[in-house]
Amino acid sequence: GVKRVEVPWARKGSAFRLLFEQAALALVREMSVNAAARIIEITDKRLWRIVEHYVGKAVSPFNLSDIEPVGLDEAASKRGRNYATVFIDTEKRQEPVVFATPGKGKQTLKQFSAFLEAHEGNPANIREAVCDMSPAFLSGVAEELPNAQVTVDWFHIVQPLTKALDEVRKQEGRIKPLPKRLRWGVLKRGDADHLTPNQLKALAELLEQGLDT
Description:
The protein is of the alpha/beta class. The protein has helices at 18-28, 33-40, 44-59, 106-118, 135-144, 154-175, 182-187, 197-209; strands at 69-77, 82-89, 97-102, 128-131, 149-152. The chain is 46% helix and 15% strand. A hairpin with a 4-residue loop joins β1 and β2 (82-89). α4 packs parallel to α5. It starts with 17 loop residues before the first helix and ends with a helix. 15% of the residues are buried.
């Protein structure tokens, strides 16, 4: 009859040779799973099984007992319809990614906390969480990482300030003429190394007018 045997050129339970799986993983690192599946002419589900096997194998020996500061942020794909949240160890310069999960918001903190505990970590040991000002992230950190202080990264501090400044400039521009070249004069760092002569001139004229901008 038919007998199944283990062979050195394929892993048990896989329908593919090791070299094929290696090529498939190399493609997945550079493009989406759907695109890679089309190139190697298998279904995306079969390719996902290969990816999940090797990712699981790589993650299983993680020891997160010493992790203390983490950074987290969401990333959008497909015009914002799909999100993933990535957690990194901010003290590591090489291979800092600790955990990634589909979705965004509070539930991702719960998943990260469970992942920590499954890999010898302790959510109570996290002393710092670097994130944006999302209420969902902030409440998730408070619940799942009880001893973590929140640090809001520089970009997410500057962004709402510059948006508010630009709105005030637009509103005042409807009331009275403002100096030309003013927009980037107020949004960029206000020194000669970062502003053109025209922008510096516009900024000086604005300061003389004493407007809210």
